[in-house]
Amino acid sequence: MNPSETPPSSDTTAHLERKAGLLLAGVAAVILGFVLYVMTARGLFESTQQLVLISDDSEGVIVGMDLTFSGFPIGRVRRIELAQDGKARLVIDVPVKDARWLRTSSIFTMERGMVGDTRIRAFSGILSDPPLPADAERELLRGDTAAEIPRLVASARAILENLEAMTAAESSLNASLGHLKTTTKRMTGRYGVLSGVLGSDEQAQKIIQTLERTNTLLTKTDQRVFGNGGVMDDTQAALGSGKAALDQLHSVLLDTHQTLKNVDAVLAEAQAVGINARVATADLGPLRAEVEASLRKLSQLTNEVNRKWPFARDTEIKLP
Amino acid sequence: MPLTPVHPQRLAHWGHTVQRQWASWRFMLQLGASVLVLALTPGTYTPLFQATTARRLVISTWQVLPWFTSLAALLSLVLIRIVVVTALSYGLSQYALQMMVRVLVLELIPLSAAMFVALRSGLAFNAGALPTVSATGAHRVQAPPFERLRGELAPQVLADAFSVLTLAMVSSVVALLLAYLTVYGLSPWGLPGFTRTVGQVFDLAVSLGFMLKAFLFSMAVAVVPMAASLEAPPATSTMQPGAVRLFLVLLLIEAASLTLKYI
Fold first, then answer.
1. Which residues neighbour A48 within 8 Å (Cβ) at sequence distance 6 or greater?
2. Which residues from B are below 8 Å from A when comparing CB atoms?
3. Assigned domain for B4 exists
4. Residue B192 distance to chain A (closest CA, Å)
5. Which residues constitute the domain of residue B144?
6. Is B165 among the domain residues?
7. Could you tell me if residue B191 is inside a domain?
8. Contact yes or no for A21 and B54 at CB 8 A
């Protein structure tokens, strides 16, 4: 039945209109909310600063791609353009609140793996550096897995060639292994490792004989040195007599020590005598002076007497 | 090999068919344009028009919104779960969310809403307008009278179009919520990453294409069956009038959308 055929009552109409209004308002709210959410998700309400990354190849980069720092998206590619010098310029919008992670020393890399999309990453090693200014231009370093493959294949080929040369029948490694086999085979012989090291059983036998002789010599030496009446016993006896001589020498030294003490006392007395002699010698000087003065006076007195009469003599000298 | 001469009667038949199709498409476009003009004219919104439109809105949208939303949520949950588990098993979980938004919100849900409304109300519409049959037996397309257009047809078209938009939008929002809950659970810490992913999907071209596609879907679902009903010859086919054309139009819109988006 067509609903339009039955005229609805006014209550029903009001009810329906209320429902329709509610529906319209609800759907309008959902659409408006969704549009606002998408605009927020697109970053239309964020204040951003611009960063330009310069690369020689922008393959794999698409508008809207993230710039990540430590795995967190901190920017979005807004535009890709070709510069006059033929390099690709990636214009990236970085929200101002996330720009603090970018410093002047930051480096930017573009990684392209075998599977998955291209990634642009920022690395800031020194976070105490000055912040990256707006509209800065930086070089974008590329790490391309696909570009590494030819070099990897060339290296692998060289390694395989080396390996092939090493494992060939005439190779040094094979010869070394053959020698090792010969040596180990000798080692399993009668004389063991000695045959392996010396090259033949004859040489090993000589070594064994030498060892046996050495052993015999050592036995004899032991008997001569440490046996009864050997060198060690003689040495021990000599050491005993030496000790007695040393004891006697010790007593002699003690006597000498005592004698020297007496000599010291004598010397001390001699020293005292010397001191007395020195004092006496010191007194001799004035005594001598006094004697000389007395003698001089006596001489003067004698001269005086001689000049006096009757003892006067004719002292005049007459020339012939 | 000699060419077989085309019979003049067959040529006349082809010409008649082309002419009839052209007239039919033109009538359909004219009907849609007329309804749009009426909807954008303030003088159209008389109390009677409002009451009729409200009744149609309630019938076409209010009654089916819970059921369709539940069904869409269930199917979305299944698809989301499959995509997430598959992506995790291949180590591609970072692409799962984007893929779900692209597949569900942008493609499947609008198409499902359009098909649902088309099956429920669009194709069930029977205008009851018998076209004029000429003396030669061929029917002739006539535009409906203005009073009928304003009093009956325009509210129905608007209600159906609104129903498609509403079901698509509400189901899309529910699908987004389910995708978030499936990937991140009840934790609020995934919201910045989720928002960023949604922002990456809905760039300007995709957003405009999504809105345009939803609008064209809604108009197609509302106008094509009604135009076909108005011009259908009486009891000539057991198929609902306009069904093939509606599916053709929906297919063309979807193909054009995909072509513009991904090529």
1. A93, A94, A95, A96
2. 50-59, 61-62, 65, 92, 126, 128, 152, 162, 165-166, 169-170, 172-173, 193, 195-196, 198-200, 202-203, 207
3. no
4. 9
5. 9-232+239-262
6. yes
7. yes
8. yes
In chain B, how many domains are there? 1
- Work out the number of other CB atoms within 10 angstroms of the CB of residue B98: 14
Taking the C-alpha atoms of residue B178 and residue B113, their distance in angstroms, rounded to an integer, is 18
What are the residues whose beta carbons fall under 8 Å from the beta carbon of B58, sequence distance 6 or more? A16, A19, A20, A23
Q: Using CA atoms, how far apart are residues B250 and B263, in angstroms rounded to an integer?
A: 19
Q: Give ipTM to 2 decimals.
A: 0.81
Task: Give the C-alpha separation, A168 to A173, whole Å.
Answer: 8
Closest by CA position to B56, among listed B166, B180, B206:
B166
Helices and strands (DSSP H and E) totals, chain A? 6, 7
Would you state the pLDDT for residue A9?
A: 65
The answer to whether B86 and B30 are in contact (CB under 8 A) is no
The tokens describing B227, both together, are 């135009």
Q: Taking a contact as any Cβ pair under 8 Å apart, which residues of chain A between 116 and 175 contact chain B?
A: 116
What's at B178, amino acid-wise?
L
Beta-bridged to residue A122, according to DSSP, are A69, A108
Residues A140 and A77: beta-carbon distance below 8 Å: no
B171, two tokens? 């189901």
The answer to the question of residue B246 being in a domain is yes
The 10s digit of each residue's pLDDT in B13-62 is: 888 888 888 888 888 898 889 889 988 988 888 888 888 888 888 888 88
Contact A16 B53 (CB under 8 A): no
Best CA proximity match to A49, nearest among A117, A134, A127, A133:
A134
Q: B243 pLDDT band (50/70/90 cuts)?
A: confident
A42–B166 CB contact, under 8 Å: no
Cis peptide before B225 (omega within 30 of 0): no
Q: What does the H/E/C string look like for chain B?
A: CCCCCCCHHHHHHHHHHHHHHHHHHHHHHHHHHHHHHHHHCHHHCCHHHHHHHHHHHHHHHHCCHHHHHHHHHHHHHHHHHHHHHHHHHCCCHHHHHHHHHHHHHHHHHHHHHHHHHHHHHHCCCCCCCCCEECCCCCEECCCCCHHHHHHHHHHHHHHHHHHHHHHHHHHHHHHHHHHHHHHHCCCHHHHHHHHHHHHHHCCHHHHHHHHHHHHHHHHHHHHHHHHHHHHCCCCCCCCCCCHHHHHHHHHHHHHHHHHHHHC
Q: How far is B134 from chain A (nearest CA, A)?
A: 28
Residue range A10-28, pLDDT digits in tens: 777 788 888 888 999 999 9
Cα-Cα end-to-end distance for chain A: 212
Radius of gyration of chain A (CA): 63
CB B175 within 8 A of CB A34: no
Backbone angles phi, psi at A104, to 5 degrees: -65, -25
Residue the block writes with tokens 């498409």: B25
